[in-house]
Specification:
There is one protein chain. By secondary structure, the chain is α/β, with parallel strands linked by helices. Helices cover 30% and strands 18% of the residues. Strands 1-4-3-2-5-6 form a six-stranded mixed beta sheet, covered by helices on one side. A hairpin with a 5-residue loop joins strand 5 and strand 6.
């Protein structure tokens, strides 16, 4: 596959905090996730458009994390009070988010990706190329198809002869 038309995913930039990361909320980097498929989800906890997709993201995290998908929530605040670590941590707990969340309080990562929207999805392949991105809510079926495609591609790169997916959601999704 010629990847010359794809952009290399920028490293996380100016991160002000970490929630749900390994080793008691220590830093994670995109470089440390190389070899994984990464779903970067840029959101903010007071935006209804960022909240409604969360059941889908949780479902994808449950279904594909054992096949090489890593979901990383990038909390990029819209309002000043959303920069408060305790507020974000409370929201992460309230929403039941289990995947890592990095706090992009100064929009360093937001700017590195040239983002202008909440929510925004970036799918990054195992070699760190942005292979798919989506603005806003909806199109969940296409996002999941893209996740499956990149997870299967990753498995093939690792020498797998076949990969299977559970066709049923792990839990009912209640938008």
């Amino acid at each position: 596959l010629d990847k010359s038309q794809f952009m290399t995913a920028p490293e996380f930039a100016q991160i002000s905090g970490y929630i749900n990361t390994p080793n008691n909320n220590h830093p994670i980097t995109l470089s440390s996730l190389r070899g994984k498929v990464v779903l970067l989800y840029i959101w903010t906890y007071t935006c209804i458009n960022s909240i409604r997709p969360m059941p889908y993201i949780d479902d994808w995290n449950q279904k594909y994390s054992n096949k090489g998908l890593v979901v990383v929530g990038v909390h990029s605040p819209e309002f000043q009070f959303e920069k408060n670590y305790a507020n974000v941590k409370d929201a992460v707990q309230r929403f039941g988010i289990k995947y890592p969340v990095i706090l992009d309080s100064n929009h360093g990562t937001w700017n590195a990706y040239g983002n202008n929207y909440w929510p925004r999805y970036y799918l990054i392949d195992a070699q760190r190329y942005i292979r798919y991105n989506h603005v806003g809510e909806g199109d969940h079926n296409q996002i999941e198809k893209s996740i499956r495609s990149l997870v299967a591609e990753r498995a093939a790169l690792m020498g797998a002869k076949e990969i299977s997916f559970d066709v049923n959601p792990t839990a009912p999704i209640k938008p």
